[in-house]
Amino acid sequence: MLSVASLLGSLLSRSSGGPTAKIGSFQWVHTSYNKPGLLLEMVQSVIPPITFISHKGLAGRIAVIGGSKEYTGAPYFAAISALKVGADLSHVFCTEGASTVIKSYSPELIVHPILESKFAVHETSEWLERMHAVVLGPGLGRDPVVCLDTAKSILEEVKKKNLPLVVDADGLFLVTEYPDLIKSYGKAILTPNIVEFGRLYEKTMGEKPKPEEPVLAVKVLSRALGNVTIVKKGPNDIISDGENGRFKVKCYHSKERIKTTMNNSSVTKQEQRTFLRERFLRLLSHLSGQDAKIKMHERTSVSCVLGQVDIDIHHVQVSDLTTPMGNIPNAVLRMSDVISIEVPDLNTSNR
């Protein structure tokens, strides 16, 4: 399934007209895309190159409009994915209740908690002057004021500034309510799943799409909306602008990708590492409550009662910690400081 990040790359190629613009010239007619190498080549073609003559911001400034008290993950993943494929700056415009949570996910994101402000549209519009592409909808929620009023006005501002736009999630709810908002806007990409596509199709066409003709349904809806690009997500993504570029993208299960890109020896080693890590975590969980002697770096030895270990095996909680400096009732030890853990008697009952 295509990600918001890959779509942003395509959008940036459209707006820049630079060397990556070739992705927009591909012509496909009911083509099944099932070669991982070819897909990888397409993705690589839209990732901005790193050069010594570039400065921060030239490789892409992205605005994500979304994020509410209930939904903070979606705007984070949209924004951070853009950074991971080469964009320089990712801005998230969200509600006050989502701001602190999204900021805590990553210090790389620039977060604006303004969507509930009465000046939200004006403030967002000023920032849009600096953006190269916009994602509208992830985690937006369906609050009548934020989604149907504020987001609607922001979408109008995006169109006025002629910015490339990805509409996803609750942004598609907005478009379903007001299909004319997006009609004939050639720089828009809609990314509905099968349910969202069905709602938008029924609202626009007055009937449900025919499941036996999925490619035709995407093409018909795209034409009805003025040839905006639609990416219908599913086991096979279907993409069309109503005229050109209608094709199906076959998505590989993660296990299939591993088998395609790694030899059997590497797969076996990975499976072994996974197995050993799971067994190690299970062992540590059973040691909770046991007396232990721990050898640490700097020739230090301590004794304690073991507690829980975090899932990444970075820290271990202990109690009754006896050190050369004295006793500590409760503490957290870094596993990177630990050389060995000795449990004298595993049969000792837990405290």
UniProtKB/TrEMBL annotation:
Keywords for the protein's UniProt record, in alphabetical order: ATP-binding, Lyase, NAD, NADP, Nucleotide-binding, Phosphoprotein, Signal
HAMAP family hit by this protein: NADHX_dehydratase
A GO BP annotation: metabolite repair
Similarity field: Belongs to the NnrD/CARKD family.
Residues given in the record as (6S)-NADPHX binding sites: 139, 193-199
Protein name in the entry: ATP-dependent (S)-NAD(P)H-hydrate dehydratase
InterPro entries: Carbohydrate_kinase_pred_CS, CARKD, Ribokinase-like, SMN_gemin7
Cofactor dependence: Mg(2+)
Catalytic activity reported: (6S)-NADPHX + ATP = ADP + phosphate + NADPH + H(+); (6S)-NADHX + ATP = ADP + phosphate + NADH + H(+)
Biological classification of the source: Eukaryota, Metazoa, Spiralia, Lophotrochozoa, Mollusca
Naturally occurring in which organism (per UniProt): Mytilus galloprovincialis (Mediterranean mussel)
Pfam families: Carb_kinase (PF01256), Gemin7 (PF11095)
Enzyme class of the recorded protein, top EC level: lyase
Occurrences of domain YjeF C-terminal (ranges): 39-243
SUPFAM superfamilies: Ribokinase-like
UniProt-listed Enzyme Commission number(s): 4.2.1.93
GO cellular component: SMN-Sm protein complex
Binding site for ATP: 233-237
Signal peptide residue numbers: 1-17
MF-aspect GO terms: ATP binding; ATP-dependent NAD(P)H-hydrate dehydratase activity
Its biological purpose: Catalyzes the dehydration of the S-form of NAD(P)HX at the expense of ATP, which is converted to ADP. Together with NAD(P)HX epimerase, which catalyzes the epimerization of the S- and R-forms, the enzyme allows the repair of both epimers of NAD(P)HX, a damaged form of NAD(P)H that is a result of enzymatic or heat-dependent hydration.
